[in-house]
Specification:
Layout (H helix, E strand, L loop, with lengths): L2 E7 L7 H12 L3 E7 L5 H11 L4 E4 L4 H7 L2 E2 L1 H6 L4 E4 L5 E4 L2 H12 L7 E5 L3 H12 L4 E5 L3 H11 L5 E4 L8 E6 L17 E9 L8 H8 L4 E3 L2 H16 L6 H10 L1
Parallel strand pairs: 1-2, 1-3, 4-6, 7-8, 7-10, 8-9, 10-11, 11-12
Antiparallel strand pairs: 3-5, 5-6
């Protein structure tokens, strides 16, 4: 019998997740069906119940804007998801309970380390303090950067996040005006880039040969990628690799097998 999985979000029609997971299934010879389902903004709890009780789905990926709400609805969560305050991967367990995990940070770090740059000893700037940022802080700190600074429009939110993860490494938070250049890696975890906006960043932000990474991706350069290129970044990287890598981590949790990501990143890049 074919096991059913899906990604849920609002909107969701743009999602590449069904393409990615169908490629994973082919590669690993797993009998699964994976679809994209748009959920009404106030309908997450009902939708999860229906997907599990009536439609018998095995697991779900969760994307914007539901990651933090889903965190509140699960019965059990991993330690990483517990601290992140957001989940992007859900397992429907046989006893009817919901288990939540967050693979975003793993996906980001896998993409950075396997395909782009080292993290140890680097000064890292993280832009934003929402669910996307929360999910990546613990994995980033596990690779022992020199410093992680979280910058956000609402200063208190950045400071609270830094305090929450302070026991894991050198992390601070503040407003955009508190950014002290120069950084080796700047990660954009705000969605503003897709609307053509970039946070107010100082001109001398980047160290020599610094990398800029946008967790968002689109067919054309996002506003943040354009900013990075205009400010002399050594590398300007979009979030496509992260998308594939976090999906591979979710697939591993569901199917107990880790797909090879390189060929799939390449083929989707060509597809775009």
């Amino acid at each position: 019998m074919t096991d059913k999985y899906a990604v849920i979000g609002h909107p969701i029609s743009h999602s590449k997740s069904p393409l990615i997971h169908s490629e994973f299934a082919k590669q690993t010879e797993q009998d699964i069906e994976y679809t994209a389902i748009e959920v009404p903004l106030n309908g997450l709890a009902n939708s999860l119940k229906q997907l599990h009780d009536i439609l018998k789905f095995k697991g779900i990926n969760i994307t914007v804007p539901f990651k933090e709400e889903a965190w509140q609805l699960v019965d059990e969560k991993s330690e990483r998801a517990q601290r992140a305050g957001a989940i992007n991967t859900l397992i429907f367990k046989s006893d009817g309970s919901l288990y939540g995990e967050n693979t975003d940070g793993l996906g980001l770090c896998q993409d950075l380390l396997n395909n782009h740059i080292a993290l140890k000893g680097q000064r890292i700037l993280l832009l934003g303090a929402g669910g996307a940022a929360r999910g990546v802080i613990e994995p980033l700190l596990s690779y022992q950067p020199k410093e992680l600074f979280i910058a956000n429009r609402t200063v208190s939110k950045a400071e609270q996040l830094a305090a929450l993860f302070a026991d894991l490494g050198p992390v601070k938070g503040g407003g955009f005006n508190a950014i002290q250049p120069e950084f080796d890696l700047v990660i954009n975890a705000t969605a503003a880039s897709l609307q053509g906006e970039v946070p107010p960043l100082p001109d001398k932000l980047l160290a020599a040969n610094a990398s800029c990474y946008d967790m968002m991706y689109s067919e054309n350069d996002t506003a943040f990628i354009t900013w990075a290129k205009n400010h002399g970044a050594g590398k300007a990287i979009d979030g496509l690799g992260m998308l594939v890598e976090q999906a591979a981590e979710a697939f591993l949790i569901w199917r107990n097998i880790k797909p090879d990501t390189q060929a799939i990143i390449k083929s989707i890049r060509e597809h775009l």
